[in-house]
Amino acid sequence: MPTFEDVEIIKEANIYFDGKVTSRVINFNDGTTKTLGIMMPGSFEFSTEKHELMEIMAGELNVLLPGNNAWQTIKSGESFEVPSQSVFKLEVKTVVDYCCSYS
């Protein structure tokens, strides 16, 4: 979906890795949450409490998901999922615009 309606947006940004990764929280009326953000090129490790669906709107990155030994390349228009209570690694190749959904 290209737009969101009837949402609450938290104005304050989440800023990680010295500003190389930023996001804004969007809360929906049904209780779900998403973040919209930008990642600059670099290597990052994230941990998550909830299941994540990461949609890549623009850019390219490699992801190493839990339990995998091989990196996957993800490009604009593609997505990947991260299980809850896990750690994953990213190698961001170009500036990445993303939308992350939590469940």
UniProtKB/TrEMBL annotation:
Signal peptide: none annotated. InterPro entries: Ppnp, RmlC-like_jellyroll, RmlC_Cupin_sf. Belongs to the nucleoside phosphorylase PpnP family. It catalyses: a purine D-ribonucleoside + phosphate = a purine nucleobase + alpha-D-ribose 1-phosphate; xanthosine + phosphate = alpha-D-ribose 1-phosphate + xanthine; uridine + phosphate = alpha-D-ribose 1-phosphate + uracil; cytidine + phosphate = cytosine + alpha-D-ribose 1-phosphate. The keyword Glycosyltransferase applies. Gene3D superfamilies: Jelly Rolls (2.60.120.10). It is an enzyme of class 2 (transferase). It comes from Candidatus Pseudothioglobus singularis PS1. Keywords: Glycosyltransferase, Transferase. GO terms for molecular function: guanosine phosphorylase activity; purine-nucleoside phosphorylase activity; thymidine phosphorylase activity; uridine phosphorylase activity. Pfam families: Ppnp (PF06865). This is Pyrimidine/purine nucleoside phosphorylase. Its EC number is 2.4.2.1, 2.4.2.2. It comes from the Bacteria. GO terms for cellular component: cytosol. PANTHER family: PYRIMIDINE/PURINE NUCLEOSIDE PHOSPHORYLASE, PYRIMIDINE_PURINE NUCLEOSIDE PHOSPHORYLASE. Catalyzes the phosphorolysis of diverse nucleosides, yielding D-ribose 1-phosphate and the respective free bases. Can use uridine, adenosine, guanosine, cytidine, thymidine, inosine and xanthosine as substrates. Also catalyzes the reverse reactions.
